[in-house]
Amino acid sequence: MINTSDPPGGSHAFSQHPSRARELDRLRQQVLAAWPMEELWLKRRGLTDGMHVLDVGCGPGFVSEKLARLNPTGVTIGLEPDPELARLAGKRFDAIPGLSLQQGSLAHNHLDESYFDFAYARFVAQHLASPQDEMRHVFRLLKPGGQVVLVDADDGLILVHPEPPELLEVMRLSETIQAESGGDRWIGRKLPALLTQAGFADVGFDVLPFTSHQLGRPALFDLAWSFRLRRIEQASGADNTLLVEKVRDFFTNQNWYGVACVIAAYGVKECVR
Description:
- By secondary structure, the chain is an alpha/beta fold.
- Helix content is 42%, strand content 24%.
- It has nine helices and seven strands.
- Strands 3-2-1-4-5-7-6 form a seven-stranded mixed beta sheet.
- α5 crosses α8.
């Protein structure tokens, strides 16, 4: 997303995904599971009707739709670099007043500077090769007094008990595969520093926990682990088949209790006096 030579979507290259329908369903279920908590938190952070809202890396538009329904008299724009995801989002957006699509990245788009009141980047920073540069682009697009909210994962904040002995290797392989594509599974803890370095003021963060009790075991498994297993299968083929099968069998057939936390960081573009 930094320049035109980068793969669209960074380490989440949907156009190259071998099972797009399955990935779309995963993204949809992720939004459905997390949105009730997410909506409350965004409102506490100042999202109100009548704003100019930017959904950074909007993907197929599931979150953009939710944002637009919280902002019916305002303007909501989804920004997406991946052409296939942008096409899917555009089809969905046609029926929703005030919601539109901009295909492009933070570095390459036709958006006006100092236009947005609120920018939201949900599970985007972990896929960027140069997230620091991207936060500077967000800063440029916000009005003075505009707010940014980043929500992302951190693999140090995922716990399960009992833990299958193979899970540590699954986590390691998943992190390595994403890092090789320019991503960072430990980005959550770095978000406040990224915002400060980009020039934002009043930077802070919260930790949002999603538990197996709250979501149900299947939903938490899908949120925190299932995509890792598919990524390992796609990257290594038969080499890790037994490893993946053992972990998938554990989460499917055993009683376990887990929590996956995300970091939600925020900041404000100060008004110049």
